Amino acid sequence: MPDDTPADRPPKIPESVLVVIHDPAWRVLVMERAANPGFWQSVTGSKDFVGEDPRDTAVREVAEETGIVVGSPAVPAEALRDWGMENVYEIYPVWRHRYAPGVTHNTEHVFGLCVPEGTPVALAPREHTRYDWLPWREAAERCFSPSNAEAILQLSRFLA
Question: What is the pLDDT of residues 82-115, one digit of tens each?
Fold first, then answer.
């Protein structure tokens, strides 16, 4: 897998968010990574600083990666729900150089974001090249990350 991180960045904080964006019909937004064709995912991103609240990280990452503004008239702040789930996983060795020496695991906070059907998406071209709205189970199957797939499969638990 090619790397997509400039060498002059400070080490990433090993705490991140995963945001499952879906519409009321349980169609889930997945995006293909620009640097890794064939790798589909939900919105993900690390904290910018240690004290950043995960909710703020989620709001920022959703806007950066999709152009969807949480807290706008179309997508009110309460549409972003903290699912109270944390995934701790081993960072793929190919990406460990992004973190401080010795960091091998990341903690990921999981959120759900319900947006109106037909919500426009404006991808950040350095991060993603394509997107698709898929039925939730199909979206889970397309994701390369097991924790991302599992989070999407939890949609039925949070919306039932």
Answer: 999 999 999 989 889 999 999 999 999 999 999 9
52/146 Cα distance (integer angstroms): 25
Residue with tokens 């993900």: 44
Note the residue count of the chain. Answer: 160
Phi/psi of residue 32, nearest 5 degrees: -90, 130
* Distance from the first to the final alpha carbon of the chain: 37
In 3D space, the residue among 94, 99, 106, 102 whose CA is nearest the CA of residue 148 turns out to be 106
> In whole angstroms, what is the distance from residue 43 CA to residue 25 CA?
19
pLDDT tens across 39-55, in order?
A: 999 999 999 999 999 99
* Element at 131 (helix H, strand E): strand 128-135
What pTM did the predictor assign?
A: 0.91
**DSSP category for residue 126:** T
What's the CA dihedral at 40, 81, 150, 16 to 10 degrees?
A: 60
CB 43 within 8 A of CB 62: yes
Greater pLDDT, 1 or 10? 10
Place of tokens 């995960």: 54
Q: Check residue 41 and give left, alpha or beta (phi > 0: left; psi -120 to 50: alpha).
A: beta
